[in-house]
Amino acid sequence: MTLNTLRRDPAEPAEWLVVFLHGYGSSGADLMAFADYWQGALPNVAFVAPDGPTATKDGGFQWIGKRPGNDPRLYDDAVAAQPAVDEFIDGELARLRLDATRLALVGFSQGTVMALHTGLRRPQTPAAILGYAGGLVGRENLAADIASRPPVMLINGELDELAPVYGMHVAVKALTEAGVVAAGQVMPNLGHAVDADALIIGARFLLSAFAHRAKHGVPG
Fold first, then answer.
1. Residue, of 119 and 66, whose pLDDT is higher
2. If you ran DSSP here, which 8-state letter would residue 100 be given?
3. Do 60 and 126 touch, CB atoms closer than 8 A?
C-alpha cells in the first residue's frame, strides 16, 4: 500500500529516521510541524509523515477506527493496520539506507496507539517510541506479541478528556511489566494537544535515545 507522505531529509546523509503517525481525522502535515521545532536539535534526522490509509467521514485520515479507549476492537484494528505501517517504515529505511534499529516512531492520539503497537512488534528494536495523548491497546496480548523493547516515553495533557491521564499510567505500568523501559510525563493545564514544553521534552527524549543507541547498540 502506498501512503501519501511528506518528507524532510537533512542536508547531510541521514543517520536516523523519525516516522510521525497522526491522530484521527488529521494528516501527516499536522505532525510534520513538529519537525519545525526539532530540526535544529536533530540535524542528522530524516522526518517522514504519512497520511493514514483510510479517509474519515469528517475529513482527514485514520489508522484505526474511532472507538472508545476501552473497546477491544481497537486491538483488532491495530493488528489489521500494522502491515501497512511496517511496509511504509521498511520502504523509508531502505530509501535512506538506514538500519532498522535507527528508527524512532512518534505518534499523537491513535498515532500513539499505532506507534506502540507496531514498534513493540518490529523484528529489529527501534531506537525509541514517543507518544503524545495516546496509549496502549491489547495489554493482555502484549506478553505474547512483544518482539522488541525500545525505550518509550508517553506524554499526556493533565486535562485531556479524549485520552485521560489514567490511560497513560496504565500503559506505562503494562510496558514496564513487559520489560520495556517506559516513562510517562503529565503536562499541567494541557488538553488533547501538544504544546512547546511537550515538544521540548520529546526532543530531549529522542536525543537521549539516539545517543544511547549509538553508544551501546541494540539491547540484548
1. 119
2. G
3. no
Instruction: Compute how many other C-beta atoms are within 10 angstroms of the C-beta atom of residue 120.
Output: 23
Residues, the chain, total? 220
CB 18 within 8 A of CB 46: yes
pLDDT at 219: 77
pLDDT in tens, 166-184: 999 999 999 999 999 999 9
* Identity of residue 214: A
157 vs 15: CA distance, rounded Å: 31
At residue 95, does pLDDT exceed 90?
A: yes
Burial of residue 179, with CB atoms counted within 10 A of its CB: 0-12 exposed, 13-18 middle, 19 or more buried: exposed
Q: Is the dihedral of CA 169, 173, 178, 183 positive or negative?
A: positive
* Residue 220 banded pLDDT, cuts 50, 70, 90: low
Q: Which amino acid is at 103?
A: L
Cβ pair 121, 82 in contact under 8 A: yes
Residue keyed to cell 484494528: 77
CA distances from 13 to 75, 117, 220 (A): 37, 29, 28
- Do the beta carbons of residue 17 and residue 5 sit within 8 Å? no
- CA atoms of 100 and 123, how far apart (whole Å): 9
What is the pLDDT at residue 6? 97
Residue listed under C-alpha cell 510521525: 20
Residue whose grid cell is 523493547: 149
Q: How far apart are CA 77 and CA 34, in angstroms?
A: 26
Q: What percent of the chain has pLDDT over 70?
A: 99
